[in-house]
Amino acid sequence: MTTSKEWVRILKFVLFSASAGIIQFGSFALLNELTPWRYWPCYLISLILSILWNFTFNRRFTFRSNANIARAMLLVLAFYAVFTPATTCLGDWLAEDLLWNEYIVTIINMLLNLSLEYLYQRFVVYRNHIDNR
Fold first, then answer.
1. Roughly what angle, to the nearest 10 degrees, separates helices 4-34 and 39-57?
2. What is the pLDDT of residues 100-119, one digit of tens each?
């Protein structure tokens, strides 16, 4: 059963992720439209910008954690060591080889990131360090 406190945490995570999504989608659109680059460098740069934004705000305001920052960052790095190559390669294949719309591919990756990252941060990164700030 999910408590009201957990629903508030989920809502905060979604709102901060939405702000990171604006950064990601906006920077992706700029790079995609203003450079001759393939899908993958545009996606990768925009993903890194959103990761930095999202980690900072979710650690402080969503999970209200005083967990060791270096440890938390390494755990998030471990998540993205798997997520980033998978979505970058898959996205490039969908956009460049199968000719899917690159914005739709980016939105799919962003939604996948939203759900997986919440679960990972909630149950791995901050599992024993929530609301202890």
1. 150
2. 999 999 999 999 999 999 99
